[in-house]
Protein 1
Amino acid sequence: MKSVGTLLLRLCMLLIAAVLLLQLYFFLQIGWWVDHNPSSTSFMRHRLSELHETVPDAQLQFKWVPYARISNNLKRAIIASEDANFSEHDGVDWDALQQAYEKNTKKGKVVRGGSTITQQLAKNLFLSGERSYLRKGQELVITYMLEFWMDKERIFEIYLNVVEWGNGVFGAEAAAQHYFRTSASNLGASQAARLAVMLPKPRFYDKNRGSAYLSQRTGLILRRMGSAELP
């Protein structure tokens, strides 16, 4: 019995060591990205793998552009739509999470998220689309790592360049070209608001561009953009 207990203890210690090493990897990788742009993310690689199941030679639409070359219209629209308190919170908006929980409980289903831009970036950079308490916990840890290493502008710059905007479409530049045949720097207010509204379900709206909800929500975000605070 003693040998079994010793073995279990060693296995637990190995598991803890593996978890700590993984956190160290995340921490150092984020530190590297302070001054270097990621060429891909975990979510991008996952989506490309899915595309290859039906189209073996499929490629992602993706082109990195600096923060200064992305329209302020798009930045304001995304903050207005996704994370109004982005410039103020420390990575997690606990009030927004509480409101989302109460609304989802009342409706009996998930109708509202509550994840901040930093949380969404944490998930896209390192994690899968799987939903579990363990994954959510890891997301929170990575979120605070991002906020430790980076200022808000850098977090937003990476987010704008790697977020999914359609079937195989990633980043503001690819989205601007895909939907409007223009560059990210030239997006108008209405175009930017429409792109922001697409973010929760980009592949759906890529196929359903005439959605009544998409048009209605776009008008609402247009009205909110003026009060959005940029980092």
Protein 2
Amino acid sequence: MAPRGSGSKKWTAVDNYFASLLAPEDALLRAALEANNTAGLPAIDVSPLQGKFLQLLVQITHARRVLEIGTLGGYSTMWMARALPPDGRIVTLEYSPTHADVARANLLRAGLLDRVDLRIGRALDLLPTLAESGAAPFDLVFIDADKRSNPDYLDWALRLSRPGTVIAVDNVVRNGAIVNGKSRDPDVIGTRRMTEQIAAHPRLSATVLQTVGDKGYDGIALAVVLP
């Protein structure tokens, strides 16, 4: 996740133009970002256009069960939760209790907490419990946590999926660093390994969309689980 405001002035202006027309932030979304900032959370939330993209994924896939790995302050959770049907639910996993407290308050203020199952702890410890508890299979999985663990998150996303499940992974371009096969950055290494897993997996069909905007130069991987 890149910090907001890290893009060029032109990219940011274009982001703002499209967002103002297609993904305008209301008072509750703005309040969530303000609460995140006041609490000292890193400014690495998805942008409004990216939030709307996630919301559209929920709608396009008719998702009822959504898994989010990496809650932060719940901004992306809010975008997706708003698109759920009445019986829909998001399970979102957050390592930091402080971040989770902020997210819970944001979701409560927005009237969305009843649609969200917020679980606190290390994602790789929590994911096996989802398999055991019957929460899966999920219709949509959004991975946006520590990038060095992306290969493990992908593995669990597949275990918790069904044919037709869509898996989205944020921040896969990493300002172009992804092409450096000699990189020692664990986030680059983890993302490259995950991408290689996707390419080799017989049950995944995927692509990557490069993005520029208010958050700089990055991209999102999008995969669908095949029968």
Protein 3
Amino acid sequence: MSFNVISFLKSALANVGAVPVADNNPLPVQMMASGGGSISSVHYETVAASQSDQIMGATGAVGDYLAGVLIIPTTLSPGAVSIKDGNGSGITIFAGGVGSITTLHPFFVPIGARCVAATTPGWKITTGANMSAIGLGSFT
């Protein structure tokens, strides 16, 4: 059985709540952001294992939207995953470590936040060893 990332993300986003799923590309999802703003298309960006502060999008900007992060472990003892709003402090969204997971199934961590950092804006993802991630959102 093969794993389809796009189908998984569509399903994960639909289960987050109030996220209508469409069937068009890029990543076929439409969603409403907080404050009533509309995000017409959601993009994804892959983050390899052991990356530090990988920016989501080409440059990142205030207002970029991070819907969530798909975490893809490759061992049962993966490293941690954290996000940053610009140069803010890292926020651990998965601590990782021995015993942190029991299967190698990817899992989705919903975020649902806009970038507000004015200094070096944009969302950044840091991954530990033995795992990769996919940032999902609307990035500049």
